[in-house]
Amino acid sequence: xxxxxxxxxxxxxxxxxxxxxxxxxxxxxxxxxxxxxxxxxxxxxxxxxxxxxxxxxxxxxxxxxxxxxxxxxxxxxxxxxxxxxxxxxxxxxxxxxxxxxxxxxxxxxxxxxxxxxxxxxxxxxxxxxxxxxxxxxxxxxxxxxxxxxxxxxxxxxxxxxxxxxxxxxxxxxxxxxxxxxxxxxxxxxxxxxxxxxxxxxxxxxxxxxxxxxxxxxxxxxxxxxxxxxxxxxxxxxxxxxxxxxxxxxxxxxxxxxxxxxxxxxxxxxxxxxxxxxxxxxxxxxxxxxxxxxxxxxxxxxxxxxxxxxxxxx
Length: 313
Prior knowledge:
Layout: E1 45-48, E2 54-60, E3 82-88, E4 93-100, H1 101-106, H2 112-139, E5 152-155, H3 163-179, E6 187-191, H4 193-200, E7 214-215, E8 220-221, E9 223-224, E10 227-231, E11 239-240, E12 253-254, E13 258-264, E14 268-283, E15 288-301, E16 307-311
Parallel strand pairs: 1-14, 5-16, 6-10
Antiparallel strand pairs: 2-3, 4-15, 6-13, 7-8, 9-10, 11-12, 13-16, 14-15
């Protein structure tokens, strides 16, 4: 019996790959970038303004008290010191993309929702990075008012590799904040995943006998010295030598030795002029759709005394 000579449905001009013409089955799942965690927006002060180029944050300092001598006139001799912090609005930050009409017609799944989501996330990531940079710069800043406290910086090469040393550093940061009368609630410690993992492997932080919190099996540890630990990939770890074009606040500095930032919620502030928005419009001249995500905001130091940087050098 002789063999049959089949007509190969997937072959081009009876030559080459026998599967070339077959449809690639759409799996129904689009492999987008993994969603990252942006951590800063609910951990600092945010103010929205209807118009203007900046916002003023007035600052005052403590007054004193003295004993009264009977018969003496009270003339208001205890002075209050005033100052201010100004946060400017940076230029409009945008993330834009263009989708050609012909490409969208050929494609077999929707990309507009994916693109708009990723564009919004790009802007959120930018804000997260700038806020963490501002927090570290606050720890290096002088006091807002005369006679007040500035930020603090603690240096130990072993912060980078030893859990016990890093724990001691967070305790020392909490002590520095206590000595400046910083409220105990709303304190956070921001770390890179590497240093969070170092802490998560230390069983002291899970010791229920003295109130430890966390789950070793899940690699989670919640607090050290009542300071909430926050893991983030947006923690700065490079030298940013100069200002980025379009910024009207100071975000640059050398962060290559920074290990952790311990700060109170009132350390930094954000001023919003235009909140995050996504727009799209069909351009008949270019036969495609332009999609733009945008915001106009700015970040700045409010209370440097509320920030402590842990550095390895």
